[in-house]
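Quick start: read one record
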Amino acid sequence: MRAAMLSRLGVASAGDDADYALVKALFGFLHATKAPFEQVMFDLYSGSARLEKALQGPAAVHYAHVAFAPLKGALAQFDAALSAQATHPYFRQDAPVTLLYPEIERLWHAIDEKDDWSLFEAKLEEIEMVRGAYGFQSPFVIPDAAKP
């Protein structure tokens, strides 16, 4: 879990003790504030580098909570991972791309009621942007011979 959290935050390991302290502070903050997980991971991507933007963003009220101090202190010990792409256009947005249940219902409603796939196709484009921002390889590789 430690490696997964560091990867999602786009930070390099600072050693076992610091890594575990960061993960503990992160989950302590999330529990105390009920801040939206995806927003926090988005805001804190690449460590303290994007902190000023986060403090003025949609989750600002959560970062004003006393429970943020240990997380902020822990995060200060970390450098951005070499693979972190904090300058990617995705991270210029105010909020992360999500696919929560109400949105799934909205996408399905458009398809079911109107045979309108445009929202679904737009969501796939957003997901592709996220994939690129985090440097994930696409699980779907179309062989050149199969391409139109």
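The chain has two domains: 2-84, 101-139.
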